[in-house]
Design a protein that fits this description.
Blueprint: E1 3-7, E2 10-13, E3 18-25, E4 32-39, E5 46-51, E6 68-73, E7 78-83, E8 92-102, E9 114-117, E10 121-126
Parallel strand pairs: 2-10
Antiparallel strand pairs: 1-3, 3-7, 4-5, 4-8, 6-7, 8-9, 8-10
Length: 127
């Protein structure tokens, strides 16, 4: 059974930073795509960072590029999302997700490529 547990969310002022953590069990983070998504009230869930299970490439949409960084610690089986220069529009529930396919390098930029999800952690950025 795969389990993902996020932590590190909270409230911060605009321009501040937060680091989210996602501890994974039942799946080796180094072998599967790992992604971070967010969902604001009344909006669809969107991807904000991802890395494939096959190499060290990363993907970020333009909305967060240069401000967010995804990384993983294989020894701790944990994935991180470092968020800097936060803006009020970054306010959302953030979800960690584990990929559907072993060593996949093609599906990691879309939600369809992910099978297992965490429960989410709230990030609130005030102006």
């Amino acid at each position: 059974q795969v389990r993902l547990v996020e932590s590190g969310g909270g409230s911060v002022q605009a321009g501040g930073s937060l680091r989210l953590s996602c501890v994974v069990s039942g799946r080796t983070v180094g072998d599967y795509s790992m992604g971070w998504f967010r969902q604001a009230p009344g909006k669809e869930r969107v991807i904000v960072a991802a890395m494939p299970g096959s190499d060290a490439n990363t993907y970020y949409p333009d909305s967060v590029k240069g401000r967010f960084t995804i990384s993983r610690d294989n020894a701790k089986n944990t994935v991180y999302l470092q968020m800097t220069s936060l803006k009020p529009e970054d306010t959302a529930v953030y979800y960690c997700a584990a990929g559907r396919y072993y060593r996949d390098s093609y599906s990691y930029t879309a939600a369809d490529g992910y099978r297992d999800w965490g429960q989410g952690t709230q990030v609130t950025v005030s102006s």
